[in-house]
Amino acid sequence: MLIRVVCVAGAPGKGERIPMLPDKPAPRTVYLLPADYPKPRRPFPILRYDPQRADGQPDLYYDPQTLNQTQLLLAWRSYKLKRYNQLRWRVALLQKAPSIYYFAFNGEAQIIDFNPALSNAVQILGRPKPRRGMPVLEIVLPENRQFFKEELQMVLEGHAIQLQRAIGSRYAEVHMFPLSKRHQVYAYYALDTTIYRRLLETTMRQQAFYETILGHLREGIILLDTDSRVLYLNSAAEYILGEEASALVGTKCVLEPQDGILTYKERPLLATSVSLPDQRMLLIIRDLSDLWEVEKQHTLLRKAIDEAPYGVLIIEKRDETLQAVYHNQTFAEWMLRHSTDPLKALYDRLPRHTQKRIPTRLSDRKSFQMLLRGSKKNQGWTHLLAIFFPIDLKTPKGDTELYWAVVLQDQSEVYQAAQKQRRLEQHHQQLIIEAQEKERQHLAEELHDNLGMLLSVLKMELSTIIQDIPPASALRTKLQSLSARLDEVVQTVRLTSHQLMPPLVEHFGLIPSLEALLRRFRAVTGMQIHLQVDGEETPLPLIKVLHIYRIIQELINNALRHAKAQNLYIHLHYQKHRLVIEIYDDGKGYDPASVQKEGIGLRNILGRLRILRAHWENLSAPGCGARYRIEVPILRRKP
Question: Is the preceding omega at residue 128 within 30 degrees of 0, hence cis?
Fold first, then answer.
């Protein structure tokens, strides 16, 4: 093949000029053209003028003195090889690109070439596998077939088409154009834009989402330009400023773009300014009106608690430990005179047995009360009522924080007044009981000395009269019956005298006196009375022994009069710090709530119990007999 020099531009020698060559060819460059080509084609193979490099790279450079057909042929083949490699790379790209779908078709709309990506995509869509000679419409989805026919007609008429098309569940950018009108070859290729489309849709949704968020934020958002003119504001800013966006956009901002507390229309606002990269300004405002009201209420409440005449302590339970988080000034004045730890100061004022129960009471999460005792001289109070109640707070995470509030109320004056009233009542009751005991003693002496003596004289005179009457006389029988009745009266008077003033209490103590009393009751009434004593008898003051004796005596009398019982049981349990008395019978019983009026005997019992500071329980029930439980505190002296 002969190669001719088409043009020499700026190089030594003359060359053939063809009109289609560039008007301003590169300087010192030779353009080559095969001799049998009637017209030159672009791009042209070239040789650059460089005699020094022509020997080493004859396919790129030339020397006019040595230029020949061999060098021209070598340059031409080198050019064709480069062109072949370029075409091979393009074909490889079409064959291997996973998101480029290509096929070529002829004027009869039949496939003449396609790449593997198209074959895979068509089969995924459920269409038949493409092959050469197959009509193009067979690989087109039914829903796209009508549009494709119109587009195919336009391409066959010589037009190029570019459009966006949904193919199944994916999207593609489609190009259809003629490749060779003379040979009637047309090309179709589609670039898969599904990812970009979805990214665009996601971006648009995010933008709409962000605009929705901005519209629903409680903080007002105002976008300002470099001249502080309003470019945008959300609905919260409209509400805070009391103006519509249409009236503010484009105008000078009514707020200064600065950080801090601002006042607008007598409303406190918190403003924060943020500088943007494009020199614009973002102003974030928040209405503090509600917050100010809450803060004002909190301040008033805090001040009221701090200056209140009662102590307040807040305890937090964290990791199974208790920690004081707040106490007011009154609590500090009452409890922290000699300590800096509020919890320790509170515990120190509780009895030891109460301290042991505190963890259990706190774990139950139920309100309870305790009485603290102090000294007027050291603490400034004598009695404080501590009220514990739980507080549960929900955290933003949904967890629950456990707190305890302790409120201390000064009960010193109340207890002093109650103690004074109790002492007066006890003194009054003591005077009444002493008067009753003196009267009992007087009555006992009168019954024993006077009435008993008169009955004895009457008995002696009656015995004398009976001796003077004949034995078979009916009168003698009646007088003997009367004498027996008189003996019963004497016995009853003697028993009543002993009940009024038991002589053994003063000299022998409680247990022997009770045993003697029970023997007399058994002899007179016939009721079985059982006495049981547990523990070692504790010596008690005579006045206490007398009160206990009178209480038991009155309960026995009640059983004799009302219970209709066969057996009566008396248990005395001497414990370390108390005497427990249990009295019960097997009678008919009664409902304590049904007793509407207290009798003299019950009032005497309650009065003596108050003097003894005893705890009283009436456990009686209908059909189960009468049952009483009395706990009398005992103060033991150290040996």
Answer: no
Domain boundaries, the chain: 3-91, 97-197, 307-410, 412-501, 504-639
**Quick one: CATH architecture of 504-639?**
2-Layer Sandwich (3.30)
Q: How far apart are CA 175 and CA 185, in angstroms?
A: 14
Closest CA to 109 of 144, 155, 161, 146: 155
Pairing state of beta strands 567-574 and 528-534? parallel
Contacts of 366 (CB under 8 A, 6+ apart): 390
Q: Which residue stretches of the chain have pLDDT < 70?
A: 1-45, 209-217, 426, 429, 433, 436-437, 440-441, 444-445, 448-449, 452, 495, 497-506, 596-598, 636-639
Say what the pTM is: 0.39
Q: Which of 571, 505, 509 is nearest to 538 (CA)?
A: 509
**From CA 67, how far away is CA 140, in angstroms rounded?**
57
What are 35-73's pLDDT values in tens digits?
666 555 555 667 777 888 888 888 788 777 777 777 777
C-beta separation of 410 from 384 below 8 A:
yes
Taking CA atoms, 211 is separated from 202, 206, 208, 232, 277, in Å, by 14, 8, 5, 11, 20
Residue with tokens 């007399």: 520
CA distance 593 to 76: 130
- The domain 307-410: what is its CATH number? 3.30.450.20
CA distance 320 to 255: 51
DSSP H/E element including 435: helix 412-446
Q: Which residues pair with 172 in a beta bridge?
A: 165, 192
pLDDT at 2: 57
Beta bridge partners of 388: 368, 406
